[in-house]
Amino acid sequence: MDAITSGPDVEKLIHLKTLYLGPDELLVAAKIALTSDKTVREAAADIDEIEKRIRDAVPIARAIYIEPDIYRPAIDPTPPTDVFVLKSSD
């Protein structure tokens, strides 16, 4: 996970899946939040850098799929508990 989030290019790791395919092969799939002002060229360069960091950290990561997105906290399936409001009956 640090290989994905350690650079300035990732705003948030939204979702990560890995699948062990064999003795020398790991599949990594991640959905990441990039800032909304990125061009397609900048997003592609960021993804290339993330893939390089993953391969440096985990050499058996052969198939890497990175899906760029924009993080929208309103649809976060695990919001922090301080967002819940309990109404009193008094």
Salient structural properties:
90 residues; alpha+beta; Alpha-Beta Plaits; three-stranded mixed β-sheet; 3 strands; Cation_efflux_CTD; Cation_efflux_CTD_sf; Divalent metal cation (Fe/Co/Zn/Cd) transporter
Topology readout:
Blueprint: H1 2-5, E1 12-22, E2 25-33, H2 40-57, E3 61-69
Parallel strand pairs: 2-3
Antiparallel strand pairs: 1-2
Helix content: 10-25%
Question: What is the CATH T-level topology?
Answer: Alpha-Beta Plaits
Task: Give the CATH superfamily.
Answer: Cation efflux protein, cytoplasmic domain
> Under the CATH scheme, which class?
Alpha Beta
Distance between the amino and carboxyl termini: 46 Å
Shape, principal axes of CA atoms? globular
The overall strand count is 3
* Low-pLDDT ranges: none
Structural classification: alpha+beta
Write up what this structure looks like.
The protein is α+β, with helices and mostly antiparallel strands. The protein has a single domain (2-83), classed as Alpha-Beta Plaits (2-Layer Sandwich), CATH 3.30.70.1350. The protein has helices at 2-5, 40-57; strands spanning 12-22, 25-33, 61-69. 13% of the residues are buried. InterPro entries: Cation_efflux_CTD, Cation_efflux_CTD_sf. This is Divalent metal cation (Fe/Co/Zn/Cd) transporter. Residues 3-66 form the Cation efflux protein cytoplasmic domain. It holds the Pfam family ZT_dimer.
